[in-house]
Amino acid sequence: MNIDNQKPFIAGNWKLHKTIPAAIELVKALDEAIMELADAEIVVIPPFTALSEVGKTLQGSTIKIGAQNIFWEEKGAFTGEVSAPMLKDAGCQYAVIGHSERRQFFGETDETVNKKIKAALTHALTPIVCIGESLEEREKGETIDKVDSQIKAGLDGLGKEEMSEIIIAYEPIWAIGTGLTATPAQAEEVHSFIREKLTEKYGNETATCAIILYGGSVKPDNTYSLLKEQNINGALVGGASLEADSFIQIAKESIKAYKEK
Ligand code: PGA
């Protein structure tokens, strides 16, 4: 299934939050509102421990499930890791790869990101690949170079067919969990650069259909202006995805922005 960006793509990355009962409560509340959100693709990304129960709760729902991480091997002596077949088994359709918190605290590199993308694609999981610059890199004017190098190394060896199954999330590290959001113009500048790079590498059709998300302090009150930008196809939401009301509001704002683009 090739991805396309006809609808806004709104994913809630719960990070290290929610027990199983709390996770079920949240997805039930989201599912109750789903009729109003039909014009968006809605994805929840719970912790591993809740995936399976969330999967059962969402059976028959249009809300999709993603994992926060994935390992590149299928099985073996890799204590603490979770593989693509296991994630499929638990009901996942998406996997976040290379989130900046994983790069920062758990030693992920563009090389591991590349291996994980390949493992996800082999098992028909759609990778949501995170890239973005630190505050220091932005201040030194290195944003574009950083994003460029992450795309180059992260997507190394992947062809057009593969790219048509990959979602990119631009998340400036300085905006994650800080309350500092990139302005729509700052975000759009990087998003349009990413699409340009994808055009160079994979051609117009693949790049035009690509889903490029923005992430970093997305809230109900900044979603509309971000999603109105031409090259922003959705949001990877952290903190504001932990409550049904704010996540639903973000989805509604994104639908409104998309209709008015
Ligand atoms: P935030 O997190 O919305 O809490 O800034 C975004 C993310 O890390 O994906």
Descriptive tags:
261 residues; alpha/beta; TIM Barrel; binds 2-phosphoglycolic acid; 12 helices; eight-stranded parallel β-barrel
Task: Tell me what you see in this structure.
The protein is of the alpha/beta class. It has a single domain (9-260), classed as Aldolase class I (TIM Barrel, Alpha-Beta Barrel). It is built from twelve helices and eight strands. The longest helix is centred in the last third of the chain and has 19 residues, at 184-202.
Write the layout of secondary structure elements.
Elements: E1 9-13, H1 20-32, E2 41-45, H2 48-57, E3 64-67, H3 84-89, E4 94-97, H4 100-105, H5 110-122, E5 126-131, H6 135-139, H7 143-154, H8 160-163, E6 167-170, H9 184-202, H10 204-209, E7 212-215, H11 220-227, E8 234-237, H12 244-260
Parallel strand pairs: 1-2, 1-8, 2-3, 3-4, 4-5, 5-6, 6-7, 7-8
2-phosphoglycolic acid binds near residues 13, 217 and 236.
